[in-house]
Write a structure and sequence with these properties.
Layout (H helix, E strand, L loop, with lengths): L1 H25 L2 H39 E2 L12 H13 L3 E7 L3 E3 L2 E12 L1 H13 L3 E10 L2 H6 L3 H5 L1 E13 L8
Parallel strand pairs: 1-6
Antiparallel strand pairs: 2-4, 3-4, 4-6, 5-6
């Protein structure tokens, strides 16, 4: 029994020595390390949020630079913008869309912006139309699709015999580019 008591006492002594050395030698370092890790995690989250905001603001800047006219006489606010028509026809060519007709219409003032409507007739498959609309949506220009009608009547099927001809649809598409006009600042005297 003496031997067991000695081992028990030695175990208790070593355990107390271990806990006392941790308390005084190491102290609150693990607690301060935990606090620093929490602070670092919080700062990393703030950094990631700031990075996301910076990227979004870059996209907002692009959106404004492509759609904000300085005055009504600016080229962006014209009835038919040649750069937009060129990018539109490039998107159509890229997506294998046959352009039958594009008719720019006179611009209209709607609220705080100008709308430049375009009426077009194209011929393409549904898949190519979807790709084109998705690419148009990604465009830096603000574009609204006002009307989309597909000429898919029964007489079309009766007149065409080849299946390849039936894959491509004739589509009337009415879109508008939206242009914001920079407002003039009023001086209050």
């Amino acid at each position: 029994m003496n031997r067991n008591s000695l081992l028990f006492g030695l175990t208790v002594f070593l355990t107390l020595t271990f806990w006392i050395s941790i308390k005084f030698a190491i102290g609150n370092k693990p607690l301060s390390l935990r606090q620093l890790e929490l602070k670092q995690t919080e700062l990393n989250e703030q950094y990631i949020s700031a990075k996301i905001l910076a990227e979004k603001l870059d996209q907002v800047y692009t959106l404004f630079s492509e759609n904000l006219a300085l005055s009504v006489a600016d080229s962006l606010a014209e009835d038919s913008s040649l750069p937009f028509l060129k990018s539109l026809t490039d998107m159509m060519t890229k997506n294998d869309i046959i352009i039958k007709q594009i008719r720019p219409r006179p611009r209209e003032k709607v609220g705080n912006y100008y709308s430049s409507p375009y009426e077009m007739t194209v011929k393409c498959s549904f898949e190519n139309l979807g790709k084109f609309l998705a690419e148009m949506e990604k465009s830096p220009r603000l574009i609204a699709i006002n009307e989309l009608s597909i000429k898919n009547g029964i007489e079309r099927i009766k007149n065409r015999v080849e299946e390849n001809e039936l894959m491509k649809q004739e589509i009337d598409l009415h879109i508008s580019t939206l242009t914001l006009i920079k407002s003039k600042v009023k001086n209050i005297s």
